[in-house]
Amino acid sequence: MIDIKELKKLTQEFTVLYVEDDKNIQHTMHIYLNKLFRNVAVADDGERRV
């Protein structure tokens, strides 16, 4: 099983697009994803962001 430090090393160079229409969930996930990925792009609608 991989631990969080190893996961962070593997993901720190990646950018991720997170699409969620629920603003509360979107905000919470954005906080967590920012801890793992170099850049996190957030969108309410996948078609608008892409």
Sheet of most strands: 2 strands, parallel
The number of domains is 1
Estimate what percentage of residues fall within beta strands: 15-25%
What radius of gyration results from the CA coordinates?
Answer: 12 Å
Helix content: 40-55%
Category from helices, strands and their pairing: alpha+beta
- Strand line-up of the largest beta sheet: 1-2
Shape descriptor = elongated
Query: What's the number of extended β-strand segments?
Result: 2
Order of helices and strands: HEHEH
- Kindly report how far apart the N and C termini lie: 33 Å
Highlighted features:
50 residues, two-stranded parallel sheet, single chain, alpha+beta, 2 strands
Written description of the protein model:
By secondary structure, this protein is an alpha+beta fold. The mean pLDDT is 90. The protein is 52% helix and 20% strand. The chain is elongated. Strands 1-2 form a two-stranded parallel sheet. The termini are far apart. The chain has one domain (4-49).
